[in-house]
Structures are given as C-alpha cells and as structure tokens.
Design brief:
By secondary structure, the chain is mainly α. It has 2 domains: about 1-110, Orthogonal Bundle (Rna Polymerase Sigma Factor, Chain: A); about 115-190, Winged helix-like DNA-binding domain superfamily/Winged helix DNA-binding domain (Arc Repressor Mutant, subunit A, Orthogonal Bundle), CATH 1.10.10. Mean pLDDT is about 80; it is low at about 1-10 and about 100-110. The chain is elongated, with a radius of gyration of 19 Å. It is built from 10 helices and no strands. Helix content is about 75%, strand content about 0%. The chain starts with 13 loop residues before the first helix and ends with a helix. GO terms for molecular function: DNA binding; sigma factor activity.
C-alpha cells in the first residue's frame, strides 16, 4: 500500500510533484495527473484517431507513470517529455493490440457513436479528408506528424518519444508528408 506524504514540502510544478510521487505521495500523484492529462489526451487522440482509445491509452500511461516513478531522472528529462514518451508508447501498444473489426461490428459501433448532424456540419470537408488520410499512415509516422504539427514538439522531443534519432524523425516526417500528399490528392480526385 502506498504511503501519503502529507507533511513534506513540495513544489506544485511537475518536477516537484514528481519528486513527491517518487516518495509515495498519492496527493501529488493526483495533482500531477490533473496537470498531465489534458496534453496527454491531445497527443493520444492525434496518434490513435479515437478519443475513447486515447483515454484508455492515457490511463495505461498513468499507471505506468506511477509504477515507474522511481526510474524518472530529473537531470535527463522534464516530467512532461518523459510522460509524453510513455503516452506515445502506450498508444503504439494499443494500436498493435487492436484487432481488426468486422464490417458489421464497425457499422454498429459507428451508428451508436455517431455524432449529431450539427456536429458533422461544423467539421470541414478538408479536416475529414486529412483525418482519413492520417488514419492510413503507419503508427510511427502518424505519431511523428501529430507531435510535430499538432503539439509543436521539436525533432529532439519527437526522437525521445519514439526512442530514435532526430535524423530518423526527419525521415518519418518526410515519408508521412509524401504519403499524406498522395492520399489527399487521391481523395480530392474522388470528390471531383
């Protein structure tokens, strides 16, 4: 059972909270979770393309954060960067574990989760085409694109999240942009 460290002084910044979490402070963990959850959901949704799957991936990442808190080294990374890597890995694991859905199941699932018509009307055709094209990218390319364009992450941050080099990230981004351009051209031709 975890011990709550109520008497110790702690900073409410992520780094200070992480030190408290490493000492078993459950209150610090709850506060850190609130700080990290929103950005993590944003990244996970962009990587997985589905809010529900993103929430599951972030939950798995938070469990891993708690379990691996002792391995965090403040001298090597910021808490946010370290946790982003955990989230990306959880998303990649989630993507790998998802079984292909049979067409009838997919239709039933989409019908029950269908947004209302007003929401659909607000979404531009361009956004839908981009989302559809992104869904066809391999997971690492989609993650690199989501982190670079969606989150404004640097090449070094993306490399750390994907456990690769900045040069490899450049290659992932180049291939992803080329694939997206081709898919978007194809979709535009279909619309004509």
């Amino acid at each position: 059972m975890l011990q709550v460290n109520r008497g110790a002084e702690r900073s409410d910044e992520p780094g200070g909270l992480m030190v408290a979490v490493q000492n078993g402070d459950e209150d610090a963990f709850r506060l850190l979770t609130r700080r990290l959850y929103g950005p993590a959901i944003g990244v996970a949704t962009k990587v997985l393309g589905d809010r529900s799957e993103a929430e599951d991936a972030v939950q798995a990442a938070l469990v891993k954060l708690w379990r691996q808190a002792a391995s965090f080294d403040a001298g090597k990374a910021k808490v946010e960067t370290w946790f982003r890597r955990i989230v990306v890995n959880a998303c990649i694991d989630r993507k790998r574990s998802l079984k292909p859905v049979q067409p009838l199941e997919l239709v039933a699932e989409r019908a029950s989760d269908a947004p209302d018509p007003e929401e659909l009307a607000g979404q531009s055709a361009r956004s839908r085409r981009i989302s559809e094209a992104m869904g066809h990218l391999p997971a690492r390319q989609r993650t690199a694109i989501a982190l670079f364009y969606g989150e404004g992450a640097t090449m070094n941050e993306i490399a750390e999240a994907l456990e690769t080099t900045p040069k490899a990230v450049e290659g992932l981004l180049a291939r992803a942009r080329a694939e997206l351009a081709e898919r978007l051209r194809s979709l535009a031709d279909e619309v004509k």
